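Bump. Still looking for MerR family transcriptional regulator structure tokens.
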Amino acid sequence: MGNTMKIGELSRRTGVNTHQLRYYEAQGLLEAERATNGYREYDENAVLRVKQIRHLLAAGLSSEDIAYLLPCAIGEEPELIGCPELLAAMRERLGKLDEQLDRIMRSRTALAGYIDAAEQTGKKTYELFA
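Sorry for the wait, here they are.
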């Protein structure tokens, strides 16, 4: 397999703990070969892949979203090439986020209305008994 590293070295080089690296592998985001002794071995590309995963997670994407995005990712940040599958997945995710934002704003508006009404009722009640 050429130059390889074990999970501990990948963890040190990326700052990501081994438990998280195993999770990325379980989610299909990171690939490891198995040595004859059963240890995971990663190639040099794994360092970049983990950095890409971290950036995409920091952007609020789920591991499922990231699985769609990684084949179209270039560089550490990463930059995303406009693959049709990628664009469809990102548009779907954006639509879901917009729906969540709408629900949150409706909840916020309702809660603020209840607070205002309760404050007004509280003031009137206080004035009656003062």
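The chain has two domains: 1-81, 84-130.

Edit: fixed formatting.
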